């Protein structure tokens, strides 16, 4: 089953491209009308902030993808556990234990010496 998001995904690369164009336009305007320097500086700051927000949003999207994948894997393990129990397998909880261990290993990777980071 495909889950649809209530809002279309932001096209972050397009946003960054428009931002880049706007930064160059503001720089050109600032050179041609230095009397308005405070306005241009303010707009430049706003555009810089927008770039930073786009970068942060891309990190949030990546983290959300990891959480969704983890949740889907845990749900699949739970379903496998229920099916195994219904089939009379000797250790149906193995599926959940295995997935929990895998997710813990990914959350706390071990260093070469064996201790968790």
TrEMBL record:
UniProt name for this protein: Uncharacterized protein
Annotated organism of origin: Nonomuraea endophytica
